[in-house]
Amino acid sequence: VVRISDSWSGATCCFSLANGFAALHPSGFKASYRDVTRSATGVVTGVGNTLASLAAFVGPAVVGPLLQRPGSWAPSFCAIATLQLLAALAFARFSTATPVDEEKTSADLAR
Q1: How far is it, in rounded angstroms, from Cα 80 to Cα 86?
Q2: What is the four-CA torsion angle of 42, 44, 49, 51, rounded to 10 degrees?
Q3: How far is CA 23 from CA 16, 28, 56, 66, 72, in A?
Q4: For residue range 32-70, what is the model confidence (pLDDT) as tens digits?
Q5: Do residues 91 and 28 make contact, with C-beta atoms less than 8 angstroms apart?
Q6: 26 C-beta neighbours (distance < 10 Å), count
Q7: Could you tell me where the DSSP H helices lie in 1-111?
Q8: What is the pLDDT confidence band of residue 93, given thresholds at 50, 70 and 90?
Q9: Contacts of 89 (CB under 8 A, 6+ apart)
């Protein structure tokens, strides 16, 4: 991927692939808001949208300076890929199939 991003056509291809895969993710996370909690879905949706808005603000601020240097598409793509990998690892480690509301109820019953 690093070699592909050295040209404008390679960068365009990478961006096209990224946007194509990004189009697939709403079907997963929109349903997940309801799965996380049954009583506070609106709050969870608001927090998720806030985090997404912050990422949309911080992303260009980080990538912009990287693009000021010659040949800087590769570090931008590598930084994005690294963050995506870390997010996937965090999700794999901390996600559960039990809604938060039900975890609280189970913990209260165990006392």
Answers
A1: 10
A2: 160
A3: 11, 11, 16, 25, 26
A4: 777 777 788 888 888 888 988 898 888 888 888 888 877
A5: no
A6: 9
A7: 8-22, 26-36, 41-68, 73-94, 100-110
A8: very high
A9: none
